[in-house]
Amino acid sequence: MDDRIVYDGWLKVVQRTVNGKVYDILKDHDAVSAIIVNENNEILLVKQFRPALLETTLEIPAGTLDIKEESEIDCLLRELKEETGISFSNAKIEHVFSYKPMMGFSNSLMKVYLIRTEKERLISNVIHDEDVYEAKWVGIEEIGEKILSGEILDVKVILAYYYLKASCNV
């Protein structure tokens, strides 16, 4: 196996030769995300603009592990505070599953955590983050409808929905 860097920015692209064939590989950061569920079985979603899509999306809060020496949990807590305005430093945080979001061309891993909280912890749904501008509670059934209609296409939300349904956590 032979890797040659062809782009070296926040993301890295390498050309990897395997058995004589050359592949373009995205060297991406691993990431963390949280399924935040309240007592009414609503999930906290964030509304954000995605430049790659030129669209606004509804997603569960997430962030990349791009700060050296920062633990996964510290990264998660920082991202949750930035994207929802809520500090979860005293919350029970449970790792529930991991997945490889782009395994055909990337080596990144997404770890998903579950947090239970009270609805009133979201004081303001207006968020002043560079990416996220709203956080809101959405019912599990409404999320299912938005998935089926194609309004929600984010794999983190889709996996969170089916995880909660399968595990009877809602």
From TrEMBL:
The Nudix hydrolase domain extends over: 27-160
The top of its lineage is: Bacteria, Bacillati, Bacillota, Clostridia, Eubacteriales
Its recorded name reads: NTP pyrophosphohydrolase
* Gene Ontology molecular functions: hydrolase activity
Is Hydrolase one of the keywords UniProt gives this record?
yes
Q: Which UniProt keywords apply?
A: Hydrolase
Q: Does the keyword field hold Hydrolase?
A: yes
* Pfam families registered for this protein in UniProt: NUDIX
Q: Which organism is it from?
A: Acetivibrio clariflavus (strain DSM 19732 / NBRC 101661 / EBR45)
